[in-house]
Specification:
CATH superfamily: L-arginine/glycine Amidinotransferase, Chain A
Bound molecules: citrulline
Number of domains: 1
Structural class: alpha/beta
Number of helices: 6
Strand content: 15-25%
Length: 258
């Protein structure tokens, strides 16, 4: 099953070490190691039948490697978000040229102030989008997103977040009705209809896996999650993301897949 043809990533910048962190995973990222891990991430993606656009590092934005947040790409349109983190807000201006390579201007939508929204809070399940209300995504952001999606015949529902940074920090869809759920998402009625794969607490970070054309990329070092995903029948690849984890970043955060 092929769904994605394109991936956009941005190389980590040296100022990555100053990126935002909750401190949940202590330590400062090692830049050289982060670069090697990013190389490995790109090479895993290149094994999933997609073409990859690699954007240059942008030192002005320490968190700019996390390209998932300033844009959301759907089957019908691209949406430039309005990141809720002040230090990241300008990233929206820097992603747009890459988006223009794939979408005409009339298919590029914008979330605008006072609305805030980050792509990490949005999970696509077919033509439906779950959106987390978080410290980064506000009510107005959800409202604007809902209006944009409905214009293209797509739907949206809100999920209240209690513990995690972004929605996809804790829940990710692997297609074929399979959903990885951790922590607060295990019992949320929003996801009752899916085949839920419950992530053990000590492997919570690995709830953030990505499905790319029937391959699932799993972060390295999470054996129970790897086994569970393999038991679902997917081909798996693993990538070490330890340096990005120190900034609360996971596999989905580092690419736009469409
Ligand atoms: C941030 O706090 O914005 C970054 N340090 C991590 C962003 C992770 N992105 C994501 O979950 N989509």
């Amino acid at each position: 099953m092929k769904k994605f043809n394109h991936v956009i990533v941005r190389r980590p910048c040296k100022s990555l070490v100053e990126g935002i962190t909750s401190g949940l995973y202590p330590g400062k990222p090692d830049y050289e190691k982060a670069l090697r891990q990013h190389d490995d991430y790109i090479s895993a993606l290149s094994r999933c039948a997609v073409d990859i656009t690699i954007l240059p590092p942008d030192e002005r934005y320490p968190d700019s490697v996390f390209v998932e947040d300033p844009a959301l790409i759907t089957g019908q349109c691209a949406i430039i978000t309005n990141p809720g983190a002040n230090s990241r807000n300008g990233e929206k201006e820097e992603i747009i040229d890459a988006i223009r390579r794939f979408f005409p201007e009339d298919k590029i939508e914008h979330i605008t102030a006072p609305a805030t929204l980050e792509g990490g809070d949005v999970m696509m399940v077919g033509n439906h989008f779950y959106v987390g209300k978080s410290a980064r995504t506000n009510d107005e952001g959800i409202l604007q997103l809902t209006k944009i999606l409905s214009k293209y015949g797509m739907t949206c529902s809100e999920v209240e977040l209690e513990e995690v940074l972004h929605l996809k920090t804790g829940v990710n869809y692997l297609e074929n009705n399979n959903m990885l759920v951790s922590g607060e998402f295990v019992s949320k009625p929003d996801f009752a209809q899916y085949n839920k794969i419950e992530i053990p607490k000590d492997e919570a970070y690995a709830a953030n896996c990505i499905w790319v054309n029937d391959t699932v990329i799993v972060p390295e070092g999470y054996p129970s999650v790897l086994k569970a995903v393999q038991e679902l029948g997917y081909r798996t690849l693993t990538v070490d993301t330890s340096e990005f984890r120190k900034l609360d970043g996971g596999l989905s955060c580092m690419s736009l897949r469409f």
